[in-house]
Design brief:
single chain, mainly beta, six-stranded mixed beta sheet, 2 helices, 46% strand
């Protein structure tokens, strides 16, 4: 199956997803997508020291501006008032991060 979508996630959250530690992504929009997608580590670093410590890396060691792996989105629950929880499973890290050919967007985008 060809992967055609990517989702933008700030570091260190993207790294925690790749480590299998972060299994839920909180978003303000619902998704009906149930497939494997790329994780794009956005250029923006989240101001979250406790999550950064959980990666056991420094901010400068975390790749940013690259597709770093893939994840399966297996479920989505929640509401417009409280937000949505996207359930993530089976992270696979790319051996070499890939710079997307197309301009990344805040949520979904087609990287190639």
């Amino acid at each position: 199956m060809e992967i055609t979508r990517a989702i933008s996630v700030r570091q260190p959250y993207a790294e925690l997803i790749m480590l299998g530690v972060k299994t839920e992504e909180f978003r303000s929009i619902v998704t009906n997508i149930r497939e494997r997608v790329y994780i794009y580590a956005s250029n923006t670093l989240a101001d979250d020291d406790s999550s950064l410590k959980r990666t056991k890396k420094t901010a400068s060691e975390l790749p940013r501006g690259f597709l770093i792996g893939t994840i399966e989105i297996v479920d989505c629950s929640g509401s417009k008032e409280r937000g949505f929880i996207w359930k993530l499973q089976n992270p696979i890290r790319l051996e070499t991060p890939i710079k997307p050919a197309k301009k990344p967007q805040p949520v979904w985008f087609k990287p190639f």
